[in-house]
Amino acid sequence: AKASIEYAERLANAVNARCLVLEYRLAPEHPFPASLEDTVFALRALDRTYGSTNLFLSGESAGVSLAIAATTQLIESGDDVPARIYALSPFVDCTLSSRSIEQRDGEDPIVERDTLAYMVSNYFQDNNPKDPLVSPIYGDLTGLPPILIQAGKKEVLVDEALRLARRAKACNVDTTLELFDERLHIFSMFPYLPNAKEALKSIERFSSA
What we know:
Blueprint: H1 5-15, H2 34-50, E1 56-60, H3 62-76, E2 84-88, H4 99-103, H5 113-124, E3 147-152, H6 158-170, E4 175-180, H7 194-208
Helix pairs in contact: 1-7, 2-3
């Protein structure tokens, strides 16, 4: 969570709101569904305090998977859901089936296939990687709030963004996909990149739409 604080500050300024960074239990000591349970618990508490219409949910990389899985759990339980979801460089398939993972392996300085394989195996452990709560790309996304998906055109996980956008649209979710000329995964986390500023401007517009 500490690595996200600087980005959270810029995000808060972009949407003119408070931004809370959630600390949840981490794998491998706490595999799935620990982080999901913590996220759902936090969203319910925030809903009680602020109301769901005032909540915007942001996720980066695997955090997108967590954000979507938590929201689908809220839908299934009849709870209110956040008003918007921001998805930066989504990582939503723990089976590592996206073609760009193989095609662009070694080109993205942030992640590569071996790192991803280590991360997902620690996360799902004895669970099925195709479980929609592990890999939301395989789930029913009906009922999700409007979602803004941003990714780099040349990053290893660009196909995850494309697949998530297609899946969300197929489930009648109001979906916006923006691809920037970047090869860095989670490029908006790096404030010195011009496209990071452009991405935040787009989030500002999306939040007020």
